[in-house]
Amino acid sequence: MGRTDKWTVARILDEISHYIELSDPNPFKARAFERAARAVEKLDADIHDLIRTGGLYKTPGVGKAIGPVIEEVAASGGSKYLEELRGQYPPGIFDLLRIPGLGLKKIGQLHADLGIGSLDGLEEAARGGKLSKLRGFGAKTALKIIDGIEKARRRESQFLLPAGLEVAGWIREKLAAIDAVEDVEITGSVRRRLEIIRNVNLAVSTKDFDAIRSAIDQMFDQVEEIDERTVKALARNEIDVWFHLCKPNELGATVLRTTGSAEFVAKMGDAANAAARTEQELFKKAGIAFVEPERRENADDLSRKRRVRLVEPDDLRGTFHVHTTYSDGRNSMLEMLGAARDRGYEYVGISDHSKAAYYAGGLTEERLKEQHAEIDRHRKAVAPMRVFRGSEADILPDGSIDYGSPTLGLFDFVVASIHSRFNMPKDEMTERILRALDDPHVTFLGHLTGRLLLSRDGYSVDYDRIFERAAERGVVIEINGSPKRLDVDWRHIGRAIERGVVLSIHPDAHSIAEMSNVITGTWVARKAGLTAKQIFNTRSVEEVEEWLEARRSLRG
Ligand SMILES: [Zn+2]
Ligand SMILES: [Zn+2]
Question: 220 C-alpha vs ligand 1 centroid, how far in Å?
Answer without folding.
Answer: 39
